[in-house]
Amino acid sequence: MQPSLIQQAKAGSDIAFSRLVAEHQQAVRAFLRRLCARPDDADDMAQEAFLTAWANLHRLREDAQFRTFVCGIAYRKALNDRRSQGRSLRRDSAWSDLQPQSASSTVDKRVAVEAALQTLPVEQRAAVSLCVAGDYSHSEAAEILGLPLGTVKSHILKGRQKLTELLGVSS
């Protein structure tokens, strides 16, 4: 029986780890794009998350999934980045460049959803992004976010309610 990609990567195989990255990078980037204000930041943060995953692969439990492991790392990086940006924004008071651009109605809707997501507390936004937009299970989201399952479910419920209210959608 051939060792799994994770086992091969843990043994030091760059090729195996590259295949893991290729399999999971789209999901990690999509998750981070929902958490970050700028998509370029999400791509950079995803790269950092994979580098951290490579350096800490020895910590990945045998029963854990790689996607869950790297998304957890990405989430913690997003939280740290958010704290850092918050300090910068308070220091610089640079809010003027956050004005939405005019575009087609589909793009307008997407911008409205993204803007509404940005108003949610980061843990609610992360839970909604993972489970509603990212197709993760509630238990996977709980593991990624390091939160109890009930808390994740509560964040999703409250996040959906707030988004529905902000977007003027009837439930």
Helix-strand makeup class: mainly alpha
The residue-averaged pLDDT reads 83
Tell me the strand percentage band. Answer: under 5%
The biggest sheet, with number of strands, parallel, antiparallel or mixed sense and barrel status, is: none
**What's the SSE pattern?**
HHHHHHHH
Write down how many β-strands occur, each being a DSSP E stretch of 2 or more residues.
0
CATH C-level name of the largest domain = Mainly Alpha
Could you describe the 3D structure shown?
This protein starts with a helix and ends with a helix. The model is unreliable at 91-104 (pLDDT under 50). It is elongated and about 55 Å long. The longest helix is centred in the middle third of the chain and has 27 residues, at 66-92. The chain contains eight helices and no strands. The protein is mostly helical and 171 residues long. The chain has two domains: 1-97, Orthogonal Bundle (Rna Polymerase Sigma Factor, Chain: A), CATH 1.10.1740.10; 100-171, Winged helix-like DNA-binding domain superfamily/Winged helix DNA-binding domain (Arc Repressor Mutant, subunit A, Orthogonal Bundle), CATH 1.10.10. The protein has helices at 5-10, 14-35, 39-55, 66-92, 105-119, 122-133, 138-145, 149-167.
